[in-house]
UniProtKB/TrEMBL annotation:
CDD domains: SirA_YedF_YeeD
PANTHER family: SULFUR CARRIER PROTEIN YEDF-RELATED
Family (UniProt): Belongs to the sulfur carrier protein TusA family.
SUPFAM superfamilies: SirA-like (SSF64307)
InterPro entries from the UniProt entry: TusA-like, TusA-like_sf
Domain UPF0033: 7-31
Protein's name in the database: tRNA 2-thiouridine synthesizing protein A
Length: 80
């Protein structure tokens, strides 16, 4: 999947991947896609939940050898 920006949260555990996502998404324009790289399995539940609570669009997650790439589309200019 093509992303406009990336957050590297490898080696970090909850809640850091979500905190970094929240900070970075504020820098994006509506419609842009953020890729979040993490190795904390919790991201599989945390990222969709964060998207539901913030109104951003969860596009999916890819897993490869214990690393996860989550994709989020910024829906509006409201705070992420």
């Amino acid at each position: 999947m093509e992303a406009d920006a990336t957050v590297d949260a490898l080696g970090m555990y909850c809640p850091m991947p979500i905190i970094l996502t929240s900070k970075k998404i504020k820098e994006l324009q509506a419609g842009q896609v953020l890729e979040v790289n993490a190795d904390d399995e919790g991201i599989k539940e945390d990222m969709p939940a964060w998207c539901r609570s913030t109104g951003n669009e969860f596009l999916g997650i890819e897993e490869h050898e214990g690393e996860y790439r989550a994709y989020v589309r910024k829906v509006s200019q409201s705070p992420g």
